[in-house]
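Action item from last week, closing it out:
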Amino acid sequence: MNILVCDDDKEIVEAISIYLEQEGYHVIKAYDGLEALDIMKSYAKDRETGLHLMILDIMMPRLDGIHTMLELRKKYSIPVILLSAKSEDADKILGLNIGADDYVTKPFNPLELVARVKSQLRRYTRLGSIAGKEEEKSHVLSIGGLSIDLQKQEVSVDGEPVKVTPTEFKILKVLMENPGVVLTSRQIYEQVWGEDSFVTDNTIAVHIRRIREKIEIDPKEPRYLKVKWGLGYFMPDERL
């Protein structure tokens, strides 16, 4: 699989590359956001020969990670892990708000970063190859006017396509497969990431808010993605 590592600190890029290459990944290197976007465009967009994941630093010259993410999400939905030299929650939340799938705060343990890369890639490849029990089900899940196509990995509301990230798609899938069931932030994380929870409730809340902004007419009065305060999130178990 092909992973793009983008950081203006060449030593960090080299260190990350060493660990990823030891795991068998092919690493492409970039040192600012403009270079990363150019590389993204130059690669084929299919899952076999294109880029499968990006590791992106926030603080970079020419084009920083925030603006790079904004441009990236206009066309591409590959998983993105943000690197930040700052530890404040505001920076992490901002990254998630603009479409990042995960974040790692510098200084970081390279083995933890590799674990997060593997987690994102497992999720990304599962989304592209629905297998096992899912093959026995209808490949379209619907609640009212909200539908997700498991094979095409597409979301629509009242027949209109909605662009979502891989993480957002997986969260919708988990909730729509369990209508009427209240799932905690930890349960959502563990089903989406396929591992014990790394993150806080606030991280899931950011993803939920982004999904609502895309699928709800009024995100403050959600029709589909509802919350039971103090417990978790759920989709209604009824025809809307």
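Closing note: The chain has two domains: 2-128, 133-234.
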